[in-house]
Records
---
Amino acid sequence: MTASERTDEAEAATPPVDDGARLARRVELPDRAPPHQAAPVGELVFDVRDLSVFYGDFQAVRDVALPIRQNQITAFIGPSGCGKSTVLRCFNRMNDLIETARVRGSVRYHGVDLYGADVDPVEVRRRIGMVFQKPNPFPKSIYDNIAFGPKIAGYRGNMDGLVEESLRRAALWDEVKDKLKQSAFALSGGQQQRLCIARAIATSPDVVLMDEPASALDPIATLRIEELMYELKKDYTIIIVTHNMQQAARVSDRTAFFTVDVRDNGQRTGVLVEFDDTGKIFTNPGEQQTEDYITGRFG
Amino acid sequence: MTTPHHEELRHRFDEDLHSIRMDTVRLGGLILENARRVSEAMLENDLDLGQQVLAADAEVDKLAAELERHAFETMALQQPMAGDLRFLVAITRMVYELERTGDLVANCAKAHAHGDGFALSPRARGLLAKAAKASSDVFAKGIEALADMNPDAGAELDRYDDTVDDLVSEFYTLLPTESEGSGLENAISLSRVARYLERIADHGVNVGQHVHYIVRGEFPGDARAAD
C-alpha cells in the first residue's frame, strides 16, 4: 500500500533538459532483460492492487486490481468516464502531472513500488513509454524526433543506427528513409503516429502505453498501427486504451472491461468489471454488464 | 452497480436476431409437419401424400437458404459479439441440421414411393407408427427448446432419443421376418426408413444442444450427439 500525492512538473512527452541529476538519484528500477534472456512471456510486469484515483474530492476510479503480463497486449475498454485512461496513466505516473490527482493503492512494476518515494517519475517514463490519441511529433525533423529522447538520456552510441532501428521497428523506415531531415509535420497522420511510436521505443522502454492510438486515423492507417502492435509485442509489453471494441478484439491478448458505477447520490466512479482472455470476453463474458456493453446493448 | 445510460441501442440488430430466430422456428415447424405427414403416408400407404411431402421439401430448402443468407449478412453488417455471436453461429449450424432433417423426411417419402408403398405386418406397422411418432416428438422438442430458448431441454431430449433408438432397434429385429413375408427389397426400404427416423431424432437433440450453447456458452457436458 502506497500513498502518493506528489505532483511533477515534467512534461511526459518531453524529457527535461537537465536529466543527469535525476538519473543519478533514481532508485534502481529493474532493468529490462536483454532479448537473449528475455523474461518468459506472461511474467508479471505490473501488479495493481486496490488502485483508486482521486481528482480532488472526486473519486475517478475505485479499487482496481489487475495483473499485466510480459509481451502481451492488454486492452482497456469501456464507456466514456469509466476510468480506463486514468488507470492507464497510473502505469507511468502521468497522473502526477495533474496537480489535484491522488493515487491510492499499489502499482508494483517488476516487484518495485512504482509510487515509492525514491522512484524518479522521469525514469519511470523512460521505461514506460506512451503514445497518445493525437499524433504529437515535436516540431523538428523526422530524425530529430527519434534522436531527441536518447540524446537527452545520454545515449553515446551510433545515433544513425538507433534512428534507423527505431523507424524500422515502427514500420516507417521505408517510407521516410530518404527524407529524414524533413519536418515531421510533412507526414500523414498515420505516419506521424508511427513516428511517435518509433520515438517511444527509441529509448528502449519495457512497456508502451497507448491511449486511443488509432482513433484519429483512417481504417487503413489503423490496421497498420494494429499490425505494428502485433510485431512490437514480441519485444515490449503493451497496454492500449480503445473505444473501438473490434480493435481490442483484433489486437489484444487480455481485455479489461471498465464501466461507470453510479451511486444513489449521483456520484460516478470508474470500476473494473471483468478482466479475462480476449477470446473469452468477446465470445462468452462472465458478467452481464460486459455482455451488454460489447454487444452494444447499453452505452 | 448500475450502468450509466439505460437507453436501449441497436433496435435494427435486435429485429434481425428476432426474425432469424422466428424463421428458424418456422422452418422447424414446416419440417415437423412434413415428418408427421410422411408417417401418415407410410402407415396409410398414401402415395399422394408422400408426393406432397416431397414437393414441400423444396420450400424447406428455400427457407433454409434464405435464413443462412440472413444470418451471414447480419454477421457481416452488425459485428456480433458474445451471446449474439454464439446465437448466429449456432443458427447457421442449426439451419444445416434442419435442412438435413428435411432431406431425411423426403428420403422417407422416396423410400415409400420406391416400391409403391410398404408391405407391413401388423406388428411392424405398430412399431413403425411408434418409432415415427417418437422421432417426430424428439424433433418437436428440439424446436420448442429453440422457440423458448430453453437450455435445459437437453436432458429430456436425450431420454426421448433413447426411446427412439430402442424402438428402431426393435424394428430391425422384425426385418428378417418381414423380408420372408414381403420380399427383400421391401425389408431394405423399411430398414432405411428406420435409420432416417433415428437420424431425425438425433437432429432434434442437436438443436437442443445448440440452444444450450447459445444460452450457456458451452455444450451440455462433453457429449454432443454423435453425428
---
Amino acid sequence: MATIAAVIASTHHPFYYRASTSAGEDRPPFADEWVAKITAFRETLTRARPDVLLMVGSDHFHQLWLDNMPQFLVGKAPCYDANWYNEEREFGLPRLFLKGQEDLSAHILRGGLDAGFDLAFSNELRIDHSITCPIITLRPDADLPIVPVYTNIFAPPLPQPSRFVALGRALRSLVESWPSDLRVAVIGTGHLSLELGGPRQFGPHGPDPEFDRKAVDWIASGDIEKALGEVSLDQLWEPGNATHGFMDFMLMMGVAGEGEKADYVDTFDLFHTMEAYFTWYPTPLPATPATLPAAEESK
Amino acid sequence: MSKYLLNKFLYTVDRDPELVERYRSDPRGTVAWWETERANAILNVPSGECSTWLKFDDAEREALVTHDYVKLFELGAHHFLTLTLFIALFERDYAEPLAFQREYARKLSHFSLPYPDVTT
C-alpha cells in the first residue's frame, strides 16, 4: 500500500511569488525573511521524498461557479493547467502545468463515495493559486504528479467544519489503502484570520491575532476536539470575512490525526495575515543523504 | 433582489480583460449592454439555451453603474468578487502599493458584524 510521506498544511499567500522574485527597489523589506522561512519549510517536503502530491485547496471563483457549485470536488485528469488571467494580473503569478495521478484520483473517488462522501469530480480542471502557491513554495520544479481536491470555503451554504475534518480522516485512510508502492505527501492550504473586501482588510496584521494564536496552537498540537468546539460556520465570520478558509486547515488536522503534534511549526506575522507552516511525518523519514542536514527525529 | 446576478456580473467582467477596461471607461454603457446581452446567458450552455428571468433591480444597477463598491457590499455582493474586480479597475490610479485596498477598507469602516449576508 502507499505510504504517507508527509502531511503539510500552510497558508497560501499569492504575494509570495512576486515578493520572492523581485529585486532592487521593488523588493519589499520583508522578502528576505519570508524567503528564508519558505526555504526551510520546503526542506520539510524535500526530505520526505514524495512521489505524488495530494493537494487540498479551494477554487477562488475561477472554474467553479454559483450555477453549479460542488462542496467537495476531486480532479481526475492526466494533466492540469494552472493559474488564471486575474491571478497573473493581480499577483504576477506564472502559468503552470502539472501532471495528474489518475489512478489515485480514481481510488479516492471510488473509496470516498463508498465511505459516504458524495464527491464531485472533474476531468478538465484548471487549478488556481490555492494549489499553485504551495507548488511554488514547496516544490517549485512542479515535477510531481498531483491529485487536486477542492473544497467550498467561499460560497455559502458551506459544509460544516466537522465535515472538513471527516473528509481529512477519509483521505488519510484512502491514501493508506491505495494499492501502490508510491510515497504520497498530502498538502493542504487555507487561511488563519483573513478579511478580503471588508473594512478590516489589509491592516498591519491579520484581522484577529487572538484567533490566529489559538488556531496555530490547535493545529500544532493536533487538538481537533478543541478546534471543533470553538469554531462554527457562524463564528468564523468574526475573525474575518474570509476566515472560512481555516476549514481547510481543519481538514488537514483530520489527515494528520487527533492529538498528533506537528513535527515542524513556523509562523510569519506579515501585513494583513499571519502566515503559518506545519509538517507532520506519520512514517519514518527515508535515510538522509549526507549532503542534506540531519532530519529531525520523526515518530 | 439578485445577489446572484450581481455576482455574475462581477465574475464575468473580472475574467475578461476587454470587459474590465470597458467597465472602467464606460460603466453605464457596459452595465446596460451586459444586462441586455449577457445577464441571461448560462455560462456553460450554448447561446440559444438561455435563461429568461434575470434582471437587476434599480439599486443594484445603479451601484454597478456608479462603481459603488460600498453599496455592493451593503447589497450582499460577494466580497471577494467585488474586491478582485475593483482592484483591477482602480489600483492603477494609486501611487503607493495597497493604497487603493486601504482606502476601500476605510470606506467600509461604518460596517460592523454581522456584515450583509452573501449567501445566494
---
Amino acid sequence: MKRLLIVIAFLIVFLLIALPFIGIAVGAFEQGAGPFWKALVRPEALHAMYLSLLIVVIVTALNAIVGVYLSLELVRGTWIARRIKPVVNALIDLPFAVSPVIAGLMIILLFGPDSLVGAFFEGHGAKIVYAVPGMVIATLFITFPLMVREVVPLLQEIGEQSEEASKTLGAGAWRTFFQITWPSIRWGVVYGLVLTIARSLGEFGSILVVSGNILGKTQTATTLVYEDAENFDLVAANSVAFVLGVISIAILLCLEWMKKRKEAHMHAH
Amino acid sequence: MVVKILASQAYKSASRSLLVAYLLLLVAWPIVTVYVKGFSLGWKPFWDEISGPIAWKSILLTVKLSVVTTIIQAVIGTLIAYVLVRYSFRGRMLLSSLVDLPFALPTSVAGLMFLTLLGPSSPLGDWLNRIGVQLLYNQTAIVIGLTFVTFPFVVRTVQPLLEQLDASEEQASYTLGAGRGYTFRHVVLPAIVPGILAGSMLAFSRALAEFGAISLISGNLPGKTMVVSVFIYGETQNFRPEGAAALSAVLLTLSLIVLWAINTLTRGKGRLG
Amino acid sequence: MHIEARNLNKSFGSFHAVRDVSFQVEKGRLVGLLGPSGGGKTSILRLLSGLERPDSGDLFFDGKLATPLSVQERSIGFVFQNYALFKHMTVFDNIAYGLKVKKKPKAFIRERVSYLVELMGLAGHERKYPQQLSGGQRQRVAFARALAPEPQLLLLDEPFAAIDAKIRKELRLWLRNLIDEFKVTTIFVTHDQDEAIEVADEIIIVQQGKVEQQGTPWEIYTSPASPFVASFIGESNVLAKPVELRGFPELADHQANGEWLPGVSVLIRPEAIEVRPADTTYLATAGEPGRVTRTHFRGDSWYLEIDTGKLQLFAYQSTKERPFQPGDEVNILIHQMALFTPGQSRMLENRAKEDPLPIFI
C-alpha cells in the first residue's frame, strides 16, 4: 500500500510538473543550440530581459525598506487600536486576492491618460501607464504583502524583551534595531526578498495589461514569451521561457535552502 | 538636532500617518477605483455588462472550473502531503521541491509548458491527437493549467497538520484492531480537515484569478473556453474600461469573499495577534 | 496469554537494537522490562506488539506462532508513553474505539465503556476532550481504551514517565491492583528500578539489546548475575582497585600488580555496610576504621560519605540514631560484598565476624 501511494504521488508530480518543464528545454533546443542562442540575443529579447531585471531591482528595493519598516510599526507600534488591526490585516492580504489582470486594470484606471494623475503627468511628457512606471507600480501592488507576511510573524515570535533589554542598557533606536532586532529577522527578510524577486520576475498578467506590451519598449521577459507563443514562434518562446525557468529553479532551490536555515535558526533559540 | 527631530513625537505620528497613507494608497484606493468605475455609468449599465451572454458565461465557466480544480486538488494534495510526511523514501526531497515549483514559475511560462507539451508539434501531443484525446484549447486544458498553478496550496496547508498529528495516534488505532483505511477515515482525516479546507479555499481563490497559464492554452473561445480574467483582458484591449471594471468588480467581490472566509478559518501566521 | 520470545533480533539501520533476545512470560504475570535508556527495552515491547517486525527470531502466544500476525490481529492493548489519545474524540469515543472497530452492538459498548469509566474514576468526564484533562486523567483514559477490547496482552511503554514523583507512588499501587483485577498478562517498560521492584512480579533486565537477567525482584536484588545488574539495581560501592580488607581474604586471589584480574568486579551494597562509632566494642576488629567526610539528609535516612584511607565508601544511617557528623571517627563493618568473576558471581561473607581474633593466612 505504501509503495502504491508513493508511486502515485511521483506519477502525479512527474506528469504535471516535471514533464512539462522538460518539454520547455526540449522545445528550446529543438533546432539545436544555435537558434536557442539567436532567440535570446534578439534585440527585443535583450531589452525585455533588461526590463524585467530593472523592475525586479526597483520593486525589491522598495519593498524591502518599506516592508521591514511597516512590519516593525505594525507589530511594535502600540498606536494601532484594536479595531484597526483586523482592517490593517485585511488590507495587507488584499493583493493576494486580486487577479493580475484586475491589478493591471486598476493601474490603468488610476494613472491612465484619462485619469487625473495620468493626465497631469502626460502634460509634462511623462507616461505612467504603457510605460515603465506603471509596470513598477503594478508589481509593487502585487508583491506588497510578501515581505510583511514573512517578517511580522517573526517579530511576533521573538517578542520585545530583547529590544527592551537593549533600551534599558542605554542603546538608542538605531543601535537596537541593527544589533538586536535585525539579526533575529534577518533570515525572514532575506526569504521575503527572494519571494519578492521571484514574484516580480514572474509577474505576467498585470504587466500585460499595464504595459501595452510594446515591443522593445515595455515588454518584459514574461510578456515576450506570451507574444512569441501567440505568434507560434515556439522555439523563441521556449528559449526565453527556458532561461526564466532555470532562474525560477535557482530561486526555488535558494528558497528551500533558506527554509532549512530559517528553521535551524529558530530552533537554536 | 536631526536626532531630536527624529525622536520627537510629532515626527513619530507624522511617519505613522505616512505609513497608513502608503497602505491605503497602494492597496485600498486602487480596489475602490475598480468598483467606482464599474458603477460609474449607473446600476443598469453595470448589470447589462455582466449579464451579457459572453460575460455571464465566462463567470459561470470560471467558477465551475475553479470548483473542479479545487476538488481535484483536495484529493491529490492530501495524498501527496501524506506521502511526504508519513513515508521516507529516496527522492523525497526532490518531490517536495517539485511541489513548490508552480509557486516560482511565471504563469506565462507555465502556459507555454503545456502548450509545448500537448501541442501538435510534440511527440506526446501528436500521439494524443491520434488516439483522439484533446487536451488543448478546451476546458480540460484549463483544468490542467489551473491544477498546475494551484498545486502547492493544499499540500502545504495539510503538511503541518499531519506533522502535528503524532504517528503514535495512528499506531494506537492499529493496536486497537483498526486497519489502515479505518484509521485514515477516523483518526487522520478529522485532524487534517481544517488544512484541506484552508488549502482548498486558497486554491479556489487562485484559480478564480488565474490568467497567464490559461490564456495560452484555452483557446479563449468566447462563451466556450473564455474565463473571466481573459474576458477582462479583452475588454481592456478594446478600450472598454467600464466593461472591464464591471466584470472586475464581480471577480473581485468573489475573491474577497473567499479571502474573508479563509481569514476567519485560519487565525494564524502573518496575523497581528 | 503465555508469551515466548525466541532469538529476537532487530536492527535500525546500523544500530543493532535487539540482540538475540529470548524470554518467557507466564500467563497473568506483571513483568517489567528494566534497563537504561536506549538499551532496547522499548524496541522489544514494539516487537511484541507488532508495530515493528523482527529481523529474525519468533514470537509465540500461548504456544502458537505469532510472528507473522499483524498488529491488528494480535489482541493486544498498548499504552503509549505520550498516551496517544485521539485528540478530536471525546473520552467516551476514545475508550469505545476498539469496540467500535470490532463492530460490537451499541448497548454493549455503552455498558463496557461506562464500567471502565467508573473503574478509572473518570465519571463525569466522558464528554470531555483530551486537551481538557489533566495528565493523570489522560493516562487513565489511555488505560481504559487499551483494556476495553479485552486484550490478551497488555503492553505499557514507560507508563509513569510523565507523572509527578509524588503521584507516581500512588499510581504504582493503582497499577498493581488494576492488573490483579483484570488478570491480563502485562509487560511494561521502565528505566526506574524502584518502580520495577515495587510493581512487577518479575523483572527482565535489558542492556544494549541483550537480556542480562530475568527473575523476581528479590532474586535480582540479592543475586545479581552480572556487575551491570548489580550496579543498576540499587546503589553499590564499586571497588575500582584491590584493597586489603579484614575478613575478605579471597580478594587476594583475584588481583595482580595492584589491579583486579580481567573480568573481575567487586561491589559492596551500602545496606551491607554497618557504620558504628569508632569506640564500638562489638566485633570491633572485624571492621575498618574510617572518618565521615560528608553527610546528606535523604528524608528517610542519612547518606554518609566515608573515607577509610584505603577506600572511599558511602553508606546509610537510619534517622533513628544520633546522626554522624562530618569529621566523626567511625568503625565500618562490611557484612558482605559481591564478587564477580567471568562466568560466576558470589557473595563473600565477612570471615572476621565469625572469628573475632582475625587470623590471616
